[in-house]
């Protein structure tokens, strides 16, 4: 132990802001949402404990359909992002060197730091009926008239994958970088083919990075609001949109809280499952990203 | 697979092609945003009608450029104020948390370490509404019992700061703690042997060592705050930060002035990428 460990007063001064932060901005607000979700308005300003909010969720097909749809689409996004990102991460970690590599990293980071709003504006300009892609297809004679490419599920998927690539690429690159090339060379010398090497050396080594990337992407996609709303319009059917509607538009905080809790539950469950499956600890995985 | 191994020529070409297409896909949306910031038309759509700087500097003829769009400039100012508070608070708490993690021993440290990471796995929308609900509850309680009205607990910029800070602190903490972990404590011991007080050691040795991480995480916190949308959307009042204003205008049908402002954001982010990632420190820290 070091000689300069904080003494009693110092420890208190360090702990106080940390405790205030976690208690006032994280723990108590979520307790509040939990309490809200388990009550029901019985009269003006009067509330009683009840399960009504959760029952409504199961009774109303729109709500649980949206929930399941959001979960499934997030899963599809996660898998596709992993498949699309892996070869790129490999090239950056193992093949590209020097300036090319720096440029590739910059190209990955730039869209992320340029804000989700900017990315969505770009997709709007590209895909809407009067936008670049429909006009191009029309002028090339591929379509009889400019087609509206917004408001389709496929468009939402493309937008969500685009937004999540960075969070998949960075952990993958970090994981692949630490893989010693000589292991791959040895496997090759011993007669292993491409698939063997991938399956028995690369993937096991990169597993923590794959897990971290998948968890991050799944969680961010599940909680995304802007991409589905902008690219999907009224038909986006995204669960965060339901939460927003209940809270801000309808002012039904009890219902909105129940939805928030359900989403939080699903998100936590999948993070936990992802860590369990790959045998990792939460803290290690988060530090890696 | 790797350069040191022989590989099929077609596979290599296929990979090169894929990588090229991938990066085109990555940069395409940003490129069209940039290009249409200069289109001489009322809408950011094809056809190309010629080059103009109107969307930056015009203030007549039905066109309001970025520099004269009062609403837009005000929202940028709001975003800057919020981001400044967020980065100050995040860096302050991030530094003190880093000392807690790396130096202090206390009961419940394991719990603290885990709890500290939780904000990263809570969706931003939920962080926003939970803080909204909690703050409103306190505000209503104070008003009902003592008729105290605390304006900053109602939706508005102070609440936006609190919402954003709730998870950005974690990011700042991780960055600063990572650097503190690599610190050679014998330097502090030497200073102590030479008669320095704890405060002198902190001020002249430890904090200067942490400075790159503190500045870096301050910049990251500023950018994350500036670009935050999910949490902000739930907590915003009548004063809109930039992202909220852009969202509103995008839903009404974007005008090229949004492209102009986006180009500005892209340039700032390009600068951030260069400074934060590509300029590697000379000596291994």
UniProtKB/TrEMBL annotation, chain A:
Entry membrane topology: Multi-pass membrane protein
Domain of life: Bacteria
Pfam families given in the database record: BPD_transp_1
Localization: Cell membrane
Keyword Cell membrane carried by entry: yes
InterPro entries the UniProt entry points to: MetI-like, MetI-like_sf
Keyword Membrane: yes
SUPFAM superfamilies: MetI-like
Transmembrane segments: 63-90, 102-126, 156-176, 197-222, 258-278
Keywords associated with the record: Cell membrane, Membrane, Transmembrane, Transmembrane helix, Transport
ABC transmembrane type-1 domain segment(s): 67-274
Family classification: Belongs to the binding-protein-dependent transport system permease family. CysTW subfamily.
Name this protein carries in UniProt: ABC transporter permease
From TrEMBL, chain B:
Bilayer topology: Multi-pass membrane protein
Principal place of residence: membrane
Subcellular location as annotated: Cell membrane
Transmembrane feature ranges: 16-38, 82-100, 112-136, 156-178, 213-237, 257-278
InterPro entries per UniProt: Bact_Polyamine_Transport, MetI-like, MetI-like_sf
PROSITE patterns: ABC_TM1
Annotated ABC transmembrane type-1 domain residues: 76-276
Keywords: Cell membrane, Membrane, Transmembrane, Transmembrane helix, Transport
Keyword tRNA-binding: no
Family listed: Belongs to the binding-protein-dependent transport system permease family. CysTW subfamily.
The name this protein goes by in its record: ABC transporter permease
Source species of the chain: Vogesella oryzagri
Phylogenetic classification of the source organism: Bacteria, Pseudomonadati, Pseudomonadota, Betaproteobacteria, Neisseriales
